[in-house]
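Internal tracking record. Fields below are filled automatically when a chain is submitted to the structure queue. Please do not edit lines marked as system-generated. If the sequence contains nonstandard residues, flag them in the REMARKS field before resubmitting.
Queue: standard
Priority: normal
Entity type: single polypeptide chain
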Amino acid sequence: MKSLVSFPLFTLIVVVVTVRIICSYTVSTVIKLKYYNPEICGRQSTYTSFVLTDDAGNTGNPTHLAPWAVQIRVKARGGDYEVICGGTLITSKHVLTAAHCFQKHFGAKKEGDDESSMSGRYCEENQRFTDSEILTRTMVTVGAMCTRKAEKYGCVNEKQNGKTLKVSRFAIGDFYKTHCEQGGDIVILELEKSVEDVEGANYACLPFAPKTEIKDGVNVTSFGWGSDPGKGFDNSAFPMIQILNLGEYSIRRVSQKRD
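SYSTEM-GENERATED OUTPUT FOLLOWS
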């Protein structure tokens, strides 16, 4: 069985990402790993094999602003691989995503309660994909600007759809063991191949430095490939938005005011 295998790289990454969110950083001590180079991480990637023309008529090689963003695809009953979640490349071979992406059915009810997993996120351990299903039904698309061709969203070249890779093994948090209510909503997927030679793909920088900090009141960028009820199950073009980092204390105060 290739799943749920403990190895040093996974252990290191899990510790890091559960403490801080992924961000760009500067460190005095260079940390080198087999699939991670701090001198390469966090760089935006320019496509060289094709050109696009923007609304103003300018033609050139497009640049992927967040080349670490990946699409998590799961094989549906009809045989097609549908985009169900987004993820982040954290090395040239590893992807960080959410455990709830692999829940078989939403709407599970807690005994004696009307809350469903869509609102209270309650679930049972047997409601997630089996280890075998995660490995055989999951594919990851890297280096993509689009999910499919759609001219109205600027998705006009097949190369914008990136490259899709298989998953060789994974490590999953305790999300399902605690009824999806006590954290651990994390999965790290290991890809069958490195993305080093994939156009438009690169991994994000990890905050290894203990003093890495994102200050309150700073704008940060949110991105991903999730479902959008207003546009169908998934977005054709890559979505990015700017959000204000309020910090844990500020968010708690806003929540209390709303209540």
